[in-house]
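In response to reviewer comment 3 from the previous cycle, which asked for concrete evidence that the modeling workflow produces usable outputs, we include below a single protein chain processed end to end. The sequence was submitted unchanged, and the resulting structure tokens are shown without manual editing.
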Amino acid sequence: MATGAGPETELAERPMSTKQLFFTVFPSIMLPMFMSMSDQTILASALPAIAAALGDVERVSWLVISYLIAVTIAAPVYGFLGDMYGRRRFMFIALALYLGAAIASAFAPSIEVLALTRFVQGLGGGGLMSLSQALIGEAVPPRQRGQFQGYLAGIAVTASSFGPVAGAFVTDLFGWRAVFLMHVPTGIIAVLLTMRLRARPGNSQGVWRFDFPGLIYFIGFIVPLLLALDQVRSVSAAAQSTGLALLGLAILCFVLLMRREFRTDAPLLPVRLLRQAAIWRADLMAACHGATLVSLVAFMPIYLRAVHQASAGDISTVLLSITAGVGTGSIITGRIVSRTGRTMILPSLTLMVTTCTLVIFAYYGSAMNMLQLSALLMFNCLMMGSVMGVAQVTVQTAAGPRQLGQAASSVQLSRSVGASLGTAMISTILFATLAARDPEAAKLFGAILQDTQAALGGLPLERRAAVTEEITAAFRVAFLALAAFTTFGSIMAWTNPMRRV
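The workflow returned the following structure tokens.
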């Protein structure tokens, strides 16, 4: 039975310098973090090839969404169990799920099966991120956490820079299935590094009190809501009726979830933490960030392929600018927070700039060349890099040391929910707009991704230009929707009462 003398007491007795903390903690969590953060960008480079090989381009976004659903479900579970029983053992479980599902994904015969294996992979990936963040909060004092968030941002730069280039290179040479097998050797090394972590007692009092009803209600809310968004894009009466039924089920489960979480002694979701304005506003800001960034990573390769007829190499270059911008912005933000203690002023300003750059991209992106696109997107994502580190520092500081796991998982949960819903919404907006404006262009979309010349070559010149313009217009609406996300995120940052740590 745990005695209650947790890691915070140990640190109070034997405080370590920043250098000692770095070499003690950081090497063992950096590789799981690397795997989690590189996953989306590695896959993004392969999405056009997957859509061409397996078909069903309208469903290709589910390869991203299914992973995010699982991460959303898993994040609070790992946060709760890590707080109760120690985080090291659950890192091993997360790694095992992630690696097993990656191998299964490499042999998936269809989009549906691949979405299922990606879901299982997300059940592991949700632990890699939330446990890594919690381990930082467990070992590092509040004022130094901004600096360590900067170190994690360095991993983000490396992972995110590695992802697009490696994904495009492997897809071109070995095919898209090899992209999933890349995780296996990295995962084995991550397991070995995790073994270096010292097992720490959790806060369990010897009683198993996991909130299984809350987990069921949570799944019953998230999954039907995303499926309802998928139905909205269809104009058929049957699909609309199905969508309304799914939406009703999602609302019912949400009501039951909130009722359960406020009444139980061991809630799945940190609802009591969310009573603090500093925490729920920071979480909403993280949700907007997730919706914007993951949607950009998921749909930018499809946009570049359909509108600019970009090659895999060009796509990886643009994705590299996105991820490098976010990582660099995170590093800069981490250093500023550590030196000044100021937090929310940074995303308050940078998210406003991000909104402006997305509007520029929506209206003028189709006229830009690859270099101009890369430069604009790098600047955009440099601004977005200020968000997640500030959100983590704010929430962990406001929550206090005994709820670090739930605090860290609340940010990851918020980002995952935002990314899941945001990506589903952007997918719905994109394909519904295209189907409403030009049904023929919507039907040609998949063929255009596979072979642009073959798909458009038989059309008259005027019709070919019209199809391209309709696709461009649909993406314009989608990018303006992303600008709405960043606008709301900026409002949450401006109104957050915790301005410094």
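The longest helix spans residues 18-54. We consider this sufficient to address the reviewer's concern, and the full set will be provided in the supplementary archive.
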